[in-house]
């Protein structure tokens, strides 16, 4: 569904176009290659890409790789894969901020020449002390008034490797009394003797984020640099940098509120712990909300797009209910996926009056709400698996499924009437017996006889044995996110593994990431790590019932 009203970013962009501040809109997604992307990043990706699309502009994928300590090349590939999977096409506009180190250095030298930057010898602690507080202005550094010549020489020496890490920094000369602490002569370059994954040992000084980011945007011709709310206070510095460095078409920074989801873990620190303690099966465990995890669970790019659109863009911090994400994947798959039969908790049903070795192939419509999906042949025989919950020895009121002497419909097949059952040594029902009415083929009886229950089934002889994994949220916020000791209050039932399920033979051929509806059970996706042709593994994406209403 289209939203009619425009969000505040769209309004701003349209104003900028109307007033002639920008011709072609250019946005970017600027990940630091230091981890896997998550649902929050998906919002940023789709927002930036969507705006570029909407205004006929450009979208850049730029790796913000200016910090050599935390970054790893392996993340570059995973991030590219995730962005591409979401459908955000950067075409030939893939950039690396580290390729701009020369220009950044030059920009810094020019600031020095203009008297707008100086080399400072204060220690990190002293700089913090001199910076002042929210209520107290800062103090000028004793090195603030160094001559341009001296600054140029010292900065060149910093670059040449003469100083140890932390010995000297380059600072912007702005205003130590500014009410905005970010403007109190922020550090723009630091010494760091480190090998960078792209530039190797060429540099031993690296630009700080607040200096580098606006320059990256300006070099690429970004018009609207969209970031999250915590950078609002940095915007005056962003503007100062693009102005003082002297860009003719300065980009504009716009902030919006981060996306938070309830009942999931998004903090990297916590996820890392869950991975290390093997509570989850890696960064793409289907209970997590990294993009890789959502993909493995069976979410589609379309469902994530619908989700971020429903969330909207705002300046107000809030958390979105995980159930809304579930709503989106249900909506997306509802008409697109065939409805198959699977017995997750199987028990045998024997039709005693059905010919012993006969297998017949019944026509089954793939999706009653979408005739375009056609139909398939499903084998039926004397022995079937049904779900244990579909039989009760002593039924409570309003139980319309199988129980002794009751007649139900086997979905797409025949009416069957329960004639008895057997139990194993432990007293569990092991076999249910019934008879069928051959005249009720297709699921209706010519005499107009009605049954109240319809149950699904899988023919035993041709069934494929599969593992099915059922999930619950890893956190239940109503029970509290944290324990007293600060650790996460994890839901012990977040994963249930059903090792002996039986599914239709067609599902034996499913490939990784294929998804299906299992009638009455939800939507399921073939697990990309563990599924094999010999033993398919299905992850439940979402059940059919929802607590969420739009
Ligand atoms: P994290 O700490 O979760 O990795 P980050 O801000 O460090 O987040 P970056 O790689 O620097 O991650 O971010 C890339 C882009 O994604 C930035 O523009 C950032 O604002 C945006 N982003 C990060 N988290 C969210 C979120 N929860 N909601 C919306 N946008 C986000
Ligand atoms: Mg990050
Ligand atoms: Mg960041």
UniProtKB/TrEMBL annotation:
<dbReference type="InterPro" id="IPR001412">
    <property type="entry name" value="aa-tRNA-synth_I_CS"/>
</dbReference>
<feature type="domain" description="Glutamyl/glutaminyl-tRNA synthetase class Ib anti-codon binding">
    <location>
        <begin position="338"/>
        <end position="437"/>
    </location>
</feature>
<dbReference type="InterPro" id="IPR011035">
    <property type="entry name" value="Ribosomal_bL25/Gln-tRNA_synth"/>
</dbReference>
<comment type="similarity">
    <text>Belongs to the class-I aminoacyl-tRNA synthetase family.</text>
</comment>
<dbReference type="InterPro" id="IPR020058">
    <property type="entry name" value="Glu/Gln-tRNA-synth_Ib_cat-dom"/>
</dbReference>
<dbReference type="InterPro" id="IPR022861">
    <property type="entry name" value="Gln_tRNA_ligase_bac"/>
</dbReference>
<keyword id="KW-0547">Nucleotide-binding</keyword>
<dbReference type="Pfam" id="PF20974">
    <property type="entry name" value="tRNA-synt_1c_C2"/>
</dbReference>
<dbReference type="InterPro" id="IPR050132">
    <property type="entry name" value="Gln/Glu-tRNA_Ligase"/>
</dbReference>
<dbReference type="InterPro" id="IPR004514">
    <property type="entry name" value="Gln-tRNA-synth"/>
</dbReference>
<dbReference type="InterPro" id="IPR020059">
    <property type="entry name" value="Glu/Gln-tRNA-synth_Ib_codon-bd"/>
</dbReference>
<protein>
    <recommendedName>
        <fullName>Glutamine--tRNA ligase</fullName>
        <ecNumber>6.1.1.18</ecNumber>
    </recommendedName>
</protein>
<dbReference type="InterPro" id="IPR020056">
    <property type="entry name" value="Rbsml_bL25/Gln-tRNA_synth_N"/>
</dbReference>
<keyword id="KW-0067">ATP-binding</keyword>
<dbReference type="InterPro" id="IPR014729">
    <property type="entry name" value="Rossmann-like_a/b/a_fold"/>
</dbReference>
<feature type="binding site">
    <location>
        <begin position="32"/>
        <end position="34"/>
    </location>
    <ligand>
        <name>ATP</name>
    </ligand>
</feature>
<dbReference type="InterPro" id="IPR020061">
    <property type="entry name" value="Glu_tRNA_lig_a-bdl"/>
</dbReference>
<feature type="binding site">
    <location>
        <position position="64"/>
    </location>
    <ligand>
        <name>L-glutamine</name>
    </ligand>
</feature>
<keyword id="KW-0648">Protein biosynthesis</keyword>
<dbReference type="Pfam" id="PF00749">
    <property type="entry name" value="tRNA-synt_1c"/>
</dbReference>
<keyword id="KW-0030">Aminoacyl-tRNA synthetase</keyword>
<dbReference type="GO" id="GO:0016874">
    <property type="term" value="F:ligase activity"/>
</dbReference>
<feature type="binding site">
    <location>
        <position position="228"/>
    </location>
    <ligand>
        <name>ATP</name>
    </ligand>
</feature>
<feature type="binding site">
    <location>
        <position position="209"/>
    </location>
    <ligand>
        <name>L-glutamine</name>
    </ligand>
</feature>
<dbReference type="InterPro" id="IPR000924">
    <property type="entry name" value="Glu/Gln-tRNA-synth"/>
</dbReference>
<dbReference type="Pfam" id="PF03950">
    <property type="entry name" value="tRNA-synt_1c_C"/>
</dbReference>
<keyword id="KW-0963">Cytoplasm</keyword>
<feature type="domain" description="tRNA synthetases class I (E and Q) anti-codon binding">
    <location>
        <begin position="454"/>
        <end position="527"/>
    </location>
</feature>
<feature type="binding site">
    <location>
        <begin position="38"/>
        <end position="44"/>
    </location>
    <ligand>
        <name>ATP</name>
    </ligand>
</feature>
<keyword id="KW-0436">Ligase</keyword>
<feature type="short sequence motif" description="'HIGH' region">
    <location>
        <begin position="31"/>
        <end position="41"/>
    </location>
</feature>
<comment type="subunit">
    <text>Monomer.</text>
</comment>
<dbReference type="InterPro" id="IPR049437">
    <property type="entry name" value="tRNA-synt_1c_C2"/>
</dbReference>
<feature type="domain" description="Glutamyl/glutaminyl-tRNA synthetase class Ib catalytic">
    <location>
        <begin position="25"/>
        <end position="334"/>
    </location>
</feature>
């Amino acid at each position: 569904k289209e939203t009619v009203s425009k969000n505040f970013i769209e309004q701003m962009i349209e104003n900028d176009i109307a007033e002639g501040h920008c011709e072609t809109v250019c946005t970017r997604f600027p990940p630091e290659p230091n981890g896997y992307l998550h649902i929050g990043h998906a919002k940023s990706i789709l927002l930036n890409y969507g705006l570029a699309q909407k205004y006929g502009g450009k979208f850049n994928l730029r790796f913000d790789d200016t910090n050599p300590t935390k970054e790893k090349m392996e993340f570059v590939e995973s991030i590219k894969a995730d962005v591409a999977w979401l459908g955000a096409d950067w075409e030939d506009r893939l950039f690396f901020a580290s390729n701009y180190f020369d220009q950044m250095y030059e920009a810094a030298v020019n600031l020095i020449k203009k008297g707008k930057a100086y080399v400072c010898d204060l220690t990190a602690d002293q700089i913090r002390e001199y910076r002042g507080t929210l209520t107290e202005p800062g103090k000028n550094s004793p090195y603030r008034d160094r001559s341009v010549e001296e600054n140029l020489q010292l900065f060149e020496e910093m670059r040449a490797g003469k100083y140890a890490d932390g010995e000297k920094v380059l600072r912007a000369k702005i205003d130590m009394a500014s009410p905005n602490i970010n403007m109190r002569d922020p550090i723009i370059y630091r010494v760091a003797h480190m090998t960078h994954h792209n530039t190797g040992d060429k540099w031993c000084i690296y630009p700080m984020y607040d200096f580098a980011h606006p320059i990256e945007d300006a070099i690429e011709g970004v018009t609207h640099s969209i970031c999250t709310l915590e950078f609002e206070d940095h915007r005056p510095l962003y503007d100062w940098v693009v102005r003082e460095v002297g860009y003719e078409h300065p980009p504009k920074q716009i902030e919006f509120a981060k996306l938070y989801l309830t009942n999931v873990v998004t903090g990297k620190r916590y996820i890392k712990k869950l991975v290390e303690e093997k509570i989850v099966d890696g960064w793409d465990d289907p209970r997590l909300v990294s993009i890789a995890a959502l993909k493995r669970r069976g979410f589609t790019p379309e469902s994530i797009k619908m989700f971020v659109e429903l969330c909207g863009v705002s300046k107000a911090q809030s958390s979105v209910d995980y159930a809304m994400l579930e709503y989106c994947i249900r909506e997306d798959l509802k008409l697109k996926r065939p409805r198959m039969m699977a017995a997750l908790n199987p028990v045998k049903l024997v039709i005693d009056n059905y010919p012993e070795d006969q297998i017949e192939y019944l026509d089954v419509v793939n999706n009653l709400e979408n005739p375009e999906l056609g139909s398939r042949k499903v084998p039926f025989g004397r022995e079937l698996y049904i779900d244990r919950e579909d039989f009760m020895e002593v039924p409570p009121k309003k139980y319309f499924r199988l129980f002794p002497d009751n007649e139900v419909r086997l979905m797409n097949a025949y009416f069957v009437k329960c004639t008895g059952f057997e139990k194993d040594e432990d007293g569990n029902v092991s076999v249910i017996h019934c008879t069928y009415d051959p005249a009720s083929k297709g699921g209706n009886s010519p005499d107009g006889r009605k049954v109240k229950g319809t149950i699904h089934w899988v023919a035993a002889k041709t069934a494929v044995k599969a593992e099915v994994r059922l999930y619950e949220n890893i956190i239940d916020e109503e029970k509290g996110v944290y324990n007293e000791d600060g650790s996460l209050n994890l839901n012990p039932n977040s994963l249930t593994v059903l090792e002996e399920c039986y599914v239709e033979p067609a599902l034996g051929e499913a490939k990784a990431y294929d998804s299906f509806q299992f009638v009455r059970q939800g939507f399921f996706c073939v697990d990309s790590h563990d599924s094999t042709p010999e033993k398919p593994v299905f992850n439940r994406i979402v059940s059919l019932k929802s607590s969420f209403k739009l």
